[in-house]
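Render FemAB family protein in 3D.
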Amino acid sequence: MNKQEWNQIVARFPQPSLLQTWEWGEVKSRHGWTVDHKIWQNDAGEVVAAALLLAREQVIPIIRKKVKILYCPKGPLLDWDNPMRVQVLQDLQQYAIDQGAIYIKMDPDLVVAKGFEGTASFMPDPHAINMVRRIEKSGWMLSYQQIQFKNTFWIDLKPSEADLLANMKQKTRYNIRLAERKGVQVRQAGIDDLEMIYAMYAETALRDGFIIRPKGYYMDVWRTFMEAGMATPLLAEVEGQTVGGLFLFHFSSRSWYIYGMSRDLHREMMPNYLLQWEAIKLSKQKGCDTYDLWGAPDNFNETDRMWGVYKFKEGLGGKVVQTKGAFDYPASRFKYKIVQNVLPRILAVTRSIRRKQIQNELSE
């Protein structure tokens, strides 16, 4: 199967994921993962499920051995009402066993609720919640280790631009207009801007206290998707000086805001609001009907570290979408328990090292 054939399959599903595209597999294959593509067909030969699968080996200090882990990012893709789901889940379990993996992780976009508890917009989906129970009964377990965000925001792009503005909070509309009045300009960036974009992203990570990967990883992701026509970086400028940016990914009927960056310059001009408005308009121009703002709090209260992010994205007219997050199937339960106990410590050390590396990068 080639790139075009695979992406056509992925695009046909109701919730096509960027992380299931051929390009995502290409990137991960250059950063320590091996890639496999699986499809399931019904009796008529129609593809009813698909999964991009990633495999990686890593050394676990306590047992001093390499172990293999498998991951299906934002997949598998399927209609969860289709009885074929039973076969898909069983095949993934058997695949993990055949590969000698200690576990396989999947985090499908199985939406269990829109909105959140205690609000008028909260709409749980009993059918999806029941489906989660069925998945657990089939041998999978809700994971303690999330890789992607469990929850996110979606903006329905089908309304007109005027209606999209009307759906935003009044303060958000005001800030967009303020940025326009103050002369903030937004332009589409190119490959030549990537070095500067990464430096701004590293600055943002250090300021806001989150950890990012090494520079080469982002340059690879950004370049790969830009060259495939599936990503457009947007930069906000004030009098020719770059003050903020975002990467807009677009594939099939969806767009995603995954990476955002800003400087401590001219923040009073609200460039990030205008960036998002331009991303929304560009998404519509690309034919997308859903804009995924990529990330929401795990707990919807003011103590959550992402509460400020929640307020910003809500202001844009985003609607909360909840999933149960990742599921694990432990092919080796003993080793799985060891890894789950050790992994948080390994990640803590890795984050500490990476934080110092970012500081060094910015001081050079």
